[in-house]
Fold:
Amino acid sequence: MTEKNRTTLDRREFLATSTAATGAFVLGFWLPPNARAAVPHGASWYEDPANREINAWIVIDPDDTVTIRIAQTELGQGVWTSNAMMVCEELACDWDTVKLEYASANRDFREAAPEWTLPVPGEGAYDRDGGGAPEFRDRSYVNGIPDSLYRRMRTNAAASVRDGRYYLQLAGAEARERLLLAAASELSVPVNELAVKDGVITHAASGRTLSYGQVAARAAETPHPNPEAINIKPPSEWTLMGTEQHNRDVPMKVTGETMYGIDVRLPGMKWAAVRSCPVYGGDIQSFDFDAVRERPGVVSAHQLPIPNPELIRGRVFGGGVAIVADHWHQAKAAIDAMPIEWDIPAHLANRNTAGMHTELVAALDAPGTVRVDEGDVDAVLAKADRVIEATYSTPYLPRARMEPGNATVLVTDERVDIWIGDQSPQETRHSAAVITGIPEENVYVHLCHLGGGYGRNGNGPQAEHAITIANENRGTPIHMLWSREEDFVGTTYRAMGVARLRAALDDDGWPLAIDVRTAMQGDGFGPTSSFNNVARYHAPNYRFSNHTTDFHVPVGTRRGIGQAAHEFYRESFIDELAHAAGKDPYLYRRELVARSNLPHKDDLVRALDLAAEMSDWGTPLPEGLARAIALEERGADVEGTVTISAVVHTVSITRDGRVKLERVDMAHDKGFGLVNPLSVKKQLEGQIVWFYNDAMLQKNTVADGRIVENNYDRFPVARIHESPPEINIQFFETNHWLKGLGHDRATSVQSAIGDAIFQITGKRYRDLPFGQHDLSWG
Amino acid sequence: MALDLTINGAAHSVDADPETPLLWVIRDYVGLTGTKFSCGMAQCGACTVHVDGQPVRSCTFPASAAVGKAITTIEGVSDDGSHPVQVAWKELDAPQCGYCQSGMIMATLALLERTPEPTDADIDAAVTNICRCGTYHRIRAAIHRAAQLIKAEA
Structure:
């Protein structure tokens, strides 16, 4: 059986099963007319697959329609477009007419990756002509990763291009070469006499042409004779990659036609609202469904156990209850009215932010994990004439994506179908199998666009909740939707943290020793970032240690992870040292980077120089304005992929304490090439606002064991008047492949605003967000 | 009880409680899903629609209050994404995840209706919706561009 037929059979299985279960699905899926138009042509979950598959990524119809399958999730970062550009570059088809659809996560489970997608071409991070240095990380408890059909379906770590570029280019090249072989056979000419452009194959000698559609059927049956020999184009030969392309899904995002998970509608579908214990680790003691069961539309109630931590990377959320109703607002009103008693462990019921902060600070003086220890930091600090010490702190922070957690699930005795916007469909597929007992090969995850992601869409149990409820309502599609307030309970948080930095300075103000201690809860992400291996700002004696606590708030991979907090600590402290030394913060940084042993230090210096030049660094500013500079890097401490940026922020503060980011000048590493520079700019612009939020506005606190701020009234998000009016971005060439740039750029907003506050008001605050302080002056 | 509503020029008779927020009537009873739910408390503006030309946050607006009035949603802005505001949005490639953009566009339409050539301060005052992706830089440019396009059409 060919792969193509197997896919088709799956489709028929679905229809037959659903009809048997509900008697309603005689026409297959039903979607609102606007939604049908919105879903990109050929999406596997609403119409039959096209029929001329060349390989798992590429389908070509006889009418020349080229469909590229996207195996990761579009959440605003542009992967829908950039992944397709990488395939299309090699395929040599017409970019303007190519169609996109999500790949099948079910098929990903059933099939292994083609052998030719496994070896990475070239020599790694410094080989311009190669595939770079992907960093697939095995999750041994997640079946099928990393060598299942579509390799890496997760969308995380700003790694989609870094990890996927080489095999997406290979996929396009493999298909192109087979299409050419098929054409050569058709025309009875040597393949090397053929040329191809925009999906049209030309034999120049005879003037004959064939379109891809005309040879697709033959190509589908033509194996590649030597797939190990397929080459990918180096950046010097790119014609589509490296150009600014509008994101392909923007047209449907201005008409309301985009299909997000929340927009899925199925015949016979019921809605579920959920209430989870607001204290993580707590559970339901009792609930009184009788009090609300007669309300309009209400169907049933379901107790939700504490979600199995093994399915959500060990995180412990609370137990809860769901109400199913005809409409969501009915379910929501019923659950709001239903009496619920919680069983909250006593040791969690009195946790609060102040106590947790005290624990973190205490942890700094307890034994930790020493990551770097060069020279004799303690001895130098003990005898130094001048020691600068600063303790910084950062709060819990959620993603607060705008689309609340949701999933639509239909469980029958044979299979599970899940419609969801999900940054890790392979893990969701596994969860469904464990919760329902239905084999994973019969789980279908139908990907939708996500209304914001910012880190595995919360890592929380949105899918697990929906699957659990649907499993108790087999045969009925259940659309589970969290309220905004539940989304704040169901999400994971960036760990709150503290850091104490100490430096001994010599008579000229240069560091003799730097001691960095950071503390966050033990399962926090990115504990080693920004300080590990080699001091970014050189000191002959350098020590870095991590210290941990045990808190109950589940933490996860929020945009920026630990690096965002750590770069706030590092860059703030360097500013403090520069001021103490009486030196220019730009030149102070430049000198200390130049003195360092960082393998990427030359590029760090170039970034600083370019940002300073762009910003007119050193020219006078009116009263109430200040400039501050900072470095951002991931990977500068070791050989390999890296992403480097330096940013100058120009900040104004009114006398009554209103802060505005007036201008941002960013010098950004281009590496060997950006796939879609427009998409990169948009990501950088967005992250400036993201980290402005972190710097000025946002924190989550804990009281009585529960997260306090749970909607946009108490958890503010910057609005358009807070967006900087001037953003300048320049890319500079470097000789490495990039590590990624979708989540840890513009962290500099934090330290820069902090230093601008100091320059303008004379006040130094070291705890985020700054907006909680009186910033008035004069 | 039946609520008689006019949405994008079409009459709908909806069997829903009169206090049902207009958002849910639009999304779940009528099936127009371009209008989004996010906060449920009129904070973010993702649910912005027009009622008799005025922008309202439909998540807290009772459906009964819209009876007899003209309701416009993102689906009613144009048949094919050709309204100058939509064209400007596409030119600037403004959306990222896109979830807030229906509301942004509806807020912008209301602004341009009464202030055809808005200043930055006008925009700050009128388009107070939340975008978590931080697309404001392009949204502001797109609003100015839309004003140009509308003026050129006139």
